[in-house]
Q: What sequence folds into this?
């Protein structure tokens, strides 16, 4: 079953798309079958993975969410064999208005993803920079969400609003959603303010901040214009190293989660076994002794 992770922050330009594309590529490099789902009408993730805009105007996420098209017909291959992309384009802007009248409008994406849940290990959703109905659809479909935060002044502005939106979604639509982590992005270690902001965020969210920090790295800003994720564009760069580490953190966390589930199962087994023992019919002698 796919684990769906939404990359969300209503602040613009904080590294959502860079994180979606490069984290997904690193998961794919670890042999995890991964889909990038571009939910932003800007379509940046689609272009960053080398798709020509004209190639997908008739079959993209808009058609799967609104037009009743099977999502499998809206998915395209990338240079990495384990990485696919479901693109968006600017007709998704109209989707906001069209969705307003729709039945179960917050669950359109969740429903569209149903046929591919067993195809992928991870589905990474690149959300637009707003708390619009599109982002609500992304968060409603997701198991968890990552908040990329730029280490600059005002970084935490809007975070309370995002967390509050997720709280409402959790209460009313998607009880299982959890915070995968806050990811510090575009970090410049020479900048004292960046250090202060990073420390402040870590102090507020000690358990929920990724250990890995994404450095400001020129290769990361170059690779979208070449239509390549960083691990293909320059595997030796600091940016590639950082996103590989984020992928590792996510995979390890998932392993812990599976072990936890198995432990719970074995606990259930133990209880069942114990009950079996309890219900063993005692021999006559034992019965007498009791
Ligand atoms: N770690 C980094 N180092 C250098 N440049 C970066 C880094 N991360 C992102 N950038 C650049 O910063 C800009 C904004 O990043 P990105 O597009 O990922 O943000 P976004 O949150 O998706 O933006 P939007 O809100 O518009 O969707 C881009 O030009 C990107 O190439
Ligand atoms: Mg973006």
A:
């Amino acid at each position: 079953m796919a684990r769906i992770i939404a990359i969300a922050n209503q602040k613009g330009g904080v590294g959502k798309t860079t994180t979606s594309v490069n984290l997904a590529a690193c998961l794919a490099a670890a042999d995890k079958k991964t889909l990038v789902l571009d939910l932003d009408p800007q379509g940046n993730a689609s272009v960053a993975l080398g798709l020509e805009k004209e190639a997908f105007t008739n079959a993209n996420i808009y058609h799967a969410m609104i037009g009743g098209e099977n999502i499998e017909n809206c998915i395209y291959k990338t240079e990495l064999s384990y990485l696919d992309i479901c693109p968006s384009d600017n007709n998704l802007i109209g989707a906001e208005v069209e969705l307003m009248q729709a039945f179960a409008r917050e669950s359109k994406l969740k429903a569209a993803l149903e046929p591919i849940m067993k195809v992928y290990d991870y589905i990474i959703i690149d959300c637009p920079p707003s708390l619009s109905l599109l982002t609500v659809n992304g968060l409603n479909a997701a198991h968890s969400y990552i908040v990329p935060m730029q280490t600059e002044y005002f970084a935490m502005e809007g975070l309370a609003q995002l967390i509050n939106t997720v709280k409402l979604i959790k209460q009313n639509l998607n009880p299982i959603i959890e915070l995968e982590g806050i990811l510090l992005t575009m970090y410049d270690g020479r900048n004292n303010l960046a250090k202060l902001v990073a420390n402040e965020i870590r102090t507020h969210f000690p358990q929920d901040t990724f250990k890995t920090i994404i450095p400001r790295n020129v290769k990361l800003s170059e690779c979208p214009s070449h239509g390549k994720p960083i691990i293909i564009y320059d595997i030796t760069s600091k940016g590639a190293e950082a996103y590989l580490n984020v992928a590792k953190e996510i995979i390890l966390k998932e392993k812990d989660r599976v072990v936890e589930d198995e432990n719970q199962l074995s606990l259930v087994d133990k209880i069942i076994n114990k009950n079996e023992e309890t219900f063993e019919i005692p021999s006559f002698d034992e019965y007498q002794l009791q």
Q: What stands out?
A: DSSP finds twelve helices and seven strands in the chain. The radius of gyration is 22 Å. The beta strands are 3-7, 34-38, 76-77, 83-86, 122-126, 144-150, 178-185. Residues 5 and 78 are 19 Å apart (CA to CA).
